[in-house]
């Protein structure tokens, strides 16, 4: 909130210097008195910004950044999963076609590049929200930035997540695989039958071309390289648990009900509960009536009375369960705090607008008063 200030015109200041203390105009005296009242500490404190409003804004921004960071993490996982699926499909297309590049594989590479770019943007947004949270919690200084604090980790994550084969790039890499054996017959080089062999030194090798896309990382579905086997082992041990936990968190977040959905669910549960409660009450009354009627008759059957008594107690217990299990539409503490803070912020905004309107009216009256003073002083000087 700006402190109330008055911009006096040059004519007024010069005239005041000329007249000094001899000016006894009632308009000028009222203006000076009015200005002293506006510049008093109590008025300045009244128009100063309230610390409570700042705290409420900090809490509101902190919760908003927490929500944004959660959304960025969820969408980054979804985009990364879609990119992996596209890479697997691209690898399958290349393997079936037995060619390093096909039009369909190039289209899939383009889709992979788009998903990778979107993933990198989500990662940057996630780190930005994380930095804002730490600044609001006073863990980082207010002048800290994302690049100045997290640039090594962010750069490493961008490099790892951004590695892929771009569209238009394809080729083949020759690999020599050695097999050691102690049998002499296995080392013989017989005449090839529709097979291409290569003699290198004193050894004979089978030469063949096997096309696969390196965007998956390490070969085909059954990796033959040591890096691929290590990655497969690591993924089998930890990757399954990690993916399962992430998928569960996404499903639980998607199944979370909104306020309107919770209200509709409460109405449905309340209607069902009322219907079942009425049926249980009717059964209780019917059982009590049958038991009373059976007891009033002559020659009652003790077993029937005992059975009706047990059934009556069961109906009573059932009714007590209905009383204890009444559905309620009670919001959580976090939701109550959100609603309370939102209401306080709206009230503070209304008060701020009212104060701004009052200050604008005061400034307008002061400008009119200055104009009147200038007119009076100019008329007196003339």
From TrEMBL:
<feature type="transmembrane region" description="Helical">
    <location>
        <begin position="109"/>
        <end position="127"/>
    </location>
</feature>
<protein>
    <recommendedName>
        <fullName>Potassium channel domain-containing protein</fullName>
    </recommendedName>
</protein>
<keyword id="KW-0812">Transmembrane</keyword>
<feature type="transmembrane region" description="Helical">
    <location>
        <begin position="148"/>
        <end position="165"/>
    </location>
</feature>
<keyword id="KW-0472">Membrane</keyword>
<dbReference type="GO" id="GO:0016020">
    <property type="term" value="C:membrane"/>
</dbReference>
<dbReference type="InterPro" id="IPR015449">
    <property type="entry name" value="K_chnl_Ca-activ_SK"/>
</dbReference>
<feature type="transmembrane region" description="Helical">
    <location>
        <begin position="71"/>
        <end position="89"/>
    </location>
</feature>
<dbReference type="GO" id="GO:0016286">
    <property type="term" value="F:small conductance calcium-activated potassium channel activity"/>
</dbReference>
<keyword id="KW-1133">Transmembrane helix</keyword>
<feature type="region of interest" description="Disordered">
    <location>
        <begin position="1"/>
        <end position="25"/>
    </location>
</feature>
<feature type="transmembrane region" description="Helical">
    <location>
        <begin position="231"/>
        <end position="255"/>
    </location>
</feature>
<dbReference type="Pfam" id="PF03530">
    <property type="entry name" value="SK_channel"/>
</dbReference>
């Amino acid at each position: 909130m700006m402190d109330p200030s008055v911009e006096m015109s040059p004519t007024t200041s010069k005239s005041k210097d000329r007249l000094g203390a001899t000016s006894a105009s009632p308009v000028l005296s009222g203006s000076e008195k009015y200005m002293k009242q506006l510049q008093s500490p109590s008025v300045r404190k009244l128009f100063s910004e309230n610390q409570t409003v700042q705290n409420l804004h900090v809490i509101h921004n902190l919760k908003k950044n927490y929500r944004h960071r959660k959304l960025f993490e969820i969408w980054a996982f979804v985009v990364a999963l879609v990119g992996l699926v596209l890479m697997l499909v691209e690898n399958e297309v290349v393997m079936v076609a037995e060619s390093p590049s096909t039009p369909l594989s190039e289209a899939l590479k383009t889709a992979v590049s788009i998903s990778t770019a979107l993933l990198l943007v989500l990662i940057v947004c996630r780190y930005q929200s994380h930095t804002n949270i730490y600044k609001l919690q006073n863990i980082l200084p207010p002048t800290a930035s994302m690049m100045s604090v997290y640039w090594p980790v962010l750069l490493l994550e961008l490099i790892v997540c951004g590695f892929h084969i771009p569209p238009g790039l394809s080729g083949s890499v020759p690999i020599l695989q050695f097999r050691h054996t102690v049998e002499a017959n296995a080392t013989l080089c017989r005449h090839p039958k529709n097979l291409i062999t290569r003699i290198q030194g004193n050894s004979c090798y089978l030469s063949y071309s096997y096309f696969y896309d390196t965007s998956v990382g390490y070969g085909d579905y059954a990796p033959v390289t040591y890096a691929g086997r290590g990655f497969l082992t690591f993924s089998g041990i930890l990757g399954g648990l990690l993916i399962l936990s992430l998928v569960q968190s996404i499903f639980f977040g998607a199944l979370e009900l909104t306020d309107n959905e919770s209200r509709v669910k409460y109405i449905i549960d309340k209607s069902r509960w009322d219907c079942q409660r009425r049926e249980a009450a009717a059964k209780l009354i019917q059982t009590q009536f049958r038991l009373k009627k059976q007891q009033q008759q002559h020659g009652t059957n003790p077993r029937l009375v005992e059975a009706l008594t047990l059934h009556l107690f069961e109906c009573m217990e059932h009714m007590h369960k209905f009383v204890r299990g009444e559905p309620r539409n009670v919001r959580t503490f976090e939701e109550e705090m959100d609603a309370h803070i939102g209401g306080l912020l709206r009230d503070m905004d209304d008060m701020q607008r009212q104060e701004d309107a009052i200050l604008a009216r005061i400034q307008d009256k002061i400008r009119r008063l200055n104009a009147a003073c200038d007119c009076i002083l100019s008329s007196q000087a003339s």
